[in-house]
Structures are given as structure tokens and as C-alpha cells.
Amino acid sequence: MSQVFEFLLPDIGEGLTEAEIVRWLVDVGDRVRADQPVVEVETAKATVELPCPYQGTVDSRVGDVGDVLPVGSVLVTVAVAATELECSDDSAKVLVGSGVSSAPVRRRGRVRAGAVPVPRTTSLCAQPAPSRDSGSSALVTTPVAVVSPLVRRLARDNGLDLRAVQGTGADGVITRADVKRAITAASQVDSADRRGGERVPIRGMRKAVADKLSRSRREIPDVTCWMDVDATELLAARDVLNAGAEANRISLLAFLARICVAAACQYPELNSTVDVERQEIVRFSAVNLGFAAQTEKGLFVPVVHDAHKMTTADLSVEIARLTQAARAGTLALSELTGGTITLNNYGGYGVDGSTPIINHPEAAMLGVGRIVAKPWVHEGELAVRKVVQLSLTFDHRVCDGEVASGFLRHVADRVEQPLKLL
């Protein structure tokens, strides 16, 4: 005799509600020990391996590689023999947040995530959706909530799978209007496919970035101001400090980070966030500096915590460490969250200026363009100088233009005269 336990996709925190299956680490029939990783998933924050708390035999797996499952979904079921239950209490131990069900489950058919819910009051069904029972090779059927035979015929004549239609009628019943909308959407997809091209699912990190940027645009009334600045002396100061140093050279980004942090301390209005529910502006005492880092998996924004306590050299080391971790995919969740202001060095892509979207829920982002040689009036004479365009995108709810202009002027002064900073 054995009992079957469910291991659920756990709530990993940070507001994450779903995860994509990247790789299965076990097969059905494999023996697993307690706390052995069984699946690798990618969330909006990181890629992690999930350990199962049960010792036994893998009875079933739910989901294929590439599937996106909501938190609380069953990942695997494990058959635990009675002798194993008697020998070790740990094999059935339930921990808070561990993603396991607290009681053994009976073998039963499973319905894939996204299936149309079936109301108890509906007795007429159409196009049953097959799912495999975990205890045998037989197939069991799940009814689709459709009342009208005309609706079923309309779907059948147009080759529409009712299992993919979300009903808007009472108790989730699929109506004629639901089917017509689905047919129209399918025809638009077919038309787009005939034009050629590739469809790329928005998942994982890309989905998280898209959601965050969309939310920022919806909620934050942002404004951008900018100015051209002479960065000749800043480059010279960097060269002097790095002269003769073979290792631990201070990066230009570290200088810019130090300047941004100094400005955030001088103008705390921009080192803040808006608490919409309580209608309050929260000004932070610490400066946790986020910076944009491009990787093969997309754009990450690692966070240098307590950047206001660091020297320029300290910032250079920490930025290099976090950038390497981002590219290797080993950043911890804590290293991707908690930012209070962001530095975006888009000049690395060869562009002069940009109007970036604020990294919600922060209130400001300092942008830095490429540094190029330009004619410039220096000490009353025309000269060729190294010029950079700086931009500040800010949440107009936290301050007016005077404060934002002061912040940007503070940054510009220290770029032009770095000795003020040092």
C-alpha cells in the first residue's frame, strides 16, 4: 500500500504568481529522496530548481517544458510507501510555503491549466477534453460548458475547439457571442500568419519587463528633462586614478553611479516612491541604486543596496560583480529588488539621448548618452571637448520641475568638475 502526495508550485514571494517549466529533472517512475530537486522553473525574477519534500516514486508530472503554471498548481505527485511513512516522519512533513498538499490525494484525472470551468448545474456537454488518469492508461473526459446545440454546431463548422473558449454566460457557460469572438480572433491570427513572420511568446523575464513598463506608463505621470554636459574633466580624472593600475580599475559607470547617488542624497524628493493607497510620498533614507544590465535573457536591473555608504571604488567592484551575476543568471531575488532610483547608461548602445520609462515603483531615472567629441565653448574659446547628454525622467507627483532641474544640474556640475565629488 502507498499514499500519493501532491507537490505544488510554491509561492516564491515578491508578488510572483506564475512560473514557466524550463526543465524536468525526474521522470515518472523515478525514485526521489526528500528535498531532491525535481523541476527547474523560470519566474519573472530568476531561474530556480524546486526540491520536493517527499521520498518515494514519481507517480505523475503535470506540464511540459515551456508551459506556464500559476502558483498552487500541481507539479508532481509522489507515491510514498507505507513502510517509508512509518520509518520517517520527514517524508511527509509539511512546511509553510513548501508547495505541498497537507493530505494524501486519491488518484484522479487532471485538467490542464486554462481549461474551461464546468458548473455543477450544467448537464449538456460538447467536445469532451481528454485527460489521463494517474492510476491507469484509460482516458477520462472533462465536459465543456455549452448549453445550445447551435453553439456547438457553429464551433464545429468553423473548426473551433471549445476547450479554448472562455464562457461569459451564467456559471461560465459558453454563448454564441463567445464563439463568434473566438472565430474572429482566430481569423485575425490566420491572416497575420499568412503575412509571414514569427510568433514569440511573451514569458519569463520579457513578460515581467513588459508588465512593469506597462504599469509604469499607466500609473506614473513622467516628465523628462535633459542637458548637454562637458565630460572632458571626468574622463581625465578617471584616467589619472586608473594610471598604473592593472586590476581593480574604476569604471566610468562607477563614477556616474557615485555622482547619481550624491544627487539623490542632495535631492531626496527623487529618491522616493508614491504610496497610492495611502496617498503618501515615501522618501527613503537609504539610496539603493539600480542600473541597467543587458544580458542574453534580456534587460536586468540589479540593485546596489546602501550605495550611499560606498566609495567610488566600492561601487565599481559591486557593479562589476552584479553585472557578471546577471549575465550568468545567478542573481538572487534580493539583488533585483528594493531599488530607490535607477541609472541607465544607454550611451553604451551608441545613442545620444533617450526618454526612458521609470522603473516602477521608483520615482526617477538618470539617463546617460554616449560621450563624443564636439565643438564646445570652453573658457571663452571654441574647442573640441568630450560632450555627453544627460536626461532625468521623473515622477511629477513627487516634485516640480525646479527640484528635478536642481538634481540634473547637480549631476552636470560634478561631471564637469569631478573634484567637487572627490
Automatic annotation (TrEMBL):
Keyword Chloroplast among record annotations: no
Occurrences of domain Peripheral subunit-binding (PSBD) (ranges): 146-183
GO molecular function: acetyltransferase activity; lipoic acid binding
EC class (word): transferase
GO cellular component term of the entry, any: cytoplasm
EC number(s) stated in the UniProt entry for this protein: 2.3.1.-
Keyword Acyltransferase: yes
Lineage: Bacteria, Bacillati, Actinomycetota, Actinomycetes, Pseudonocardiales
Keywords noted in UniProt: Acyltransferase, Lipoyl, Pyruvate, Transferase
Family: Belongs to the 2-oxoacid dehydrogenase family.
Name of the protein in its database record: Dihydrolipoamide acetyltransferase component of pyruvate dehydrogenase complex
Entry-linked PROSITE patterns: BIOTINYL_LIPOYL, LIPOYL, PSBD
Domain Lipoyl-binding: 4-79
Highest rank taxon of the organism: Bacteria
Classification via InterPro entries: 2-oxoA_DH_lipoyl-BS (IPR003016), 2-oxoacid_DH_actylTfrase (IPR001078), 2-oxoacid_DH_E2_comp (IPR050743), Biotin_lipoyl (IPR000089), CAT-like_dom_sf (IPR023213), E3-bd_dom_sf (IPR036625), PSBD (IPR004167), Single_hybrid_motif (IPR011053)
Cofactor annotation: (R)-lipoate
